[in-house]
Amino acid sequence: MALLPTVMVLVDISGYTRFITYRTISLIHAEQIITELLESVLDQAEFPLQLNKLEGDAAFLFAVVPPEAERTAVLRDVLAQVEAFFAVFARRREQLGHDVERCRCDACQGVLDLRLKAFIHPGEVLFKQVHGLEELAGEDVILLHRLLKNRVGLDEYILMSKEVATAALCDRRADWGRPHHESYDVGTVTLHLAPPPGTMLPPLPPSTFLSRLRLRLRFMTRLLRKLWSRRRPNYRHLPAAEVSFGSFVAEAKEMHRHP
Ligand SMILES: [Zn+2]
After folding, report:
1. Cβ–Cβ < 8 Å for 251, 190
2. 61: CA distance to ligand 1 center in Å?
3. Among residues 20, 32, 159, 209, which is most buried (max CB within 10 A)?
4. Cα(100) to centroid of ligand 1, in Å?
């Protein structure tokens, strides 16, 4: 077993689950199409980025940061590779759309609706061998997978940890993506949301009276829940800094600033 600094990537194909009917032919074709698309993306990946495993409609890749390498250089390399995935994916999707045109099944008819999302997160990762297979474990692996559930609400994007964006920002336009926050049980995570290359993110909806009210309500609910939970002994085993009222208020303020 070894604990190594690693940059992890999840690429996820979405667009199918909504309408695939549970007919065998459709399911088989859906599986074939997803496999072809994932393969086109994975063919594009180069060292130090390598595949760990396929996870349904997603692929989990990683790059170990070698001790002699400059960390920011590895982060930039991984981001550039991930950005290149989008063009390859789109090209293969168009080809497939053409190839399967004549099949009337839901999967083949829906190829052009498929989209790619990518998630990048660096962290300390535990590498262990289980039955000859390399297994990646640790809190950062869990966090990366949590990012799949988010409030982004777009079809195609790259969601990355702030560190990745900071490494790349120097050679980007100032309006490249925007900060994004997600709340998980570990707390609020500061991320960066970027569009696939050659595209722009749609502008944020303007803050309205209703959206501000919703934010305030969410804050009040969390505040009440927090106050209530302090009366119970469940959190005694945690260090005070993690569960204190002060840390909660700081986090809530941060969320308020970047809803
Ligand atoms: Zn078909």
Report:
1. no
2. 29
3. 159
4. 7
The conformational region for residue 56 under phi > 0 = left, psi -120 to 50 = alpha, else beta, is left
Ion ligand 1: protein residues whose beta carbon lies under 5 Å? 29, 103, 105, 108
- Residue with the two structure tokens 């990537």: 9
**pTM for this one?**
0.80
CA 111 to ligand 1 center in whole angstroms: 10
pLDDT at 256 over 80: no
Give domain limits for the chain. 2-194, 209-257
Cβ pair 115, 155 in contact under 8 A: yes
- CB neighbour list of residue 95: distance below 8 Å, 6 or more residues apart: none
Token pair, residue 186, equals: 């570990």
Q: What's 2-194's CATH class? A: alpha beta
pLDDT tens, residue by residue, 102-116: 999 889 999 999 999
Rounded to the nearest angstrom, the distance between the alpha carbon of 104 and the centre of ligand 1 is: 6
